[in-house]
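During the reporting period the student researcher (J.K.) took over the structure-prediction task from the postdoctoral fellow and processed the backlog of single-chain submissions. One of the processed entries is reproduced below for the supervisory committee.
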Amino acid sequence: MGSRRMRPLTAADLDSLPEACARCTFWETGLSDLATFSEHRNNGSVKQAWAEAVTARWGYCGVMAVSNGRTVGYLTMAPAMYVPRLGAFATTPISQDAAVVMSAYVVEEFRGKGIGHQLVQTAAAMVARRDIRALEAVGTYHERPSCMLPTGWLEAVGFVVVREHPITPRLRMDLQSTVRWRPDLSAAWSRLTGLVAQPAPPEPASFSRVARDALSVRGPRR
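J.K. obtained the following structure tokens:
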């Protein structure tokens, strides 16, 4: 399989994702955006602007798995204020001490090799370094293809349901109490060190200013 490494996901990396994923703005837009849908809007540009905003104000917007120069998997995450679609789900809001895992994907030929587990592990290491206590996600019990992560997969990689729902439960990985993950976090972070330049510290900004900037980065669902 050649060499494989995990590295932070930046706005510049979006073009290396599968085409549909690079243009999908399901989580980056809210239901109110559907009322102003325009067939001429460039979802790729919307996704790019979202990634740039998250990186500038918070830090990397996810993690990617690279094998021999090819992107074979990725995970996106952000603070809840940068995930407008969360408001559509009855099991939100997300806990204030958590970052949101929005999406994750591994190309078919690389599935079953632990890459999804490594993506979550590395994401956990990244947010733990930022004094964030947990990762949370809204999953789905539906088995059909979706922009949402299957609940079963989230549980398999270390999340537990904290608010049940017939279709879209909310799950959480507590980085302080999930002991079986803790020994891996330092090693996962070390694998990232030196792969890319660290982002500049986020600009000082009030919650209202950050939220306003986040809500301005919107577009229609793909």
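The committee noted the following: The chain has one domain: 4-193.
J.K. will present the remaining backlog at the next meeting.
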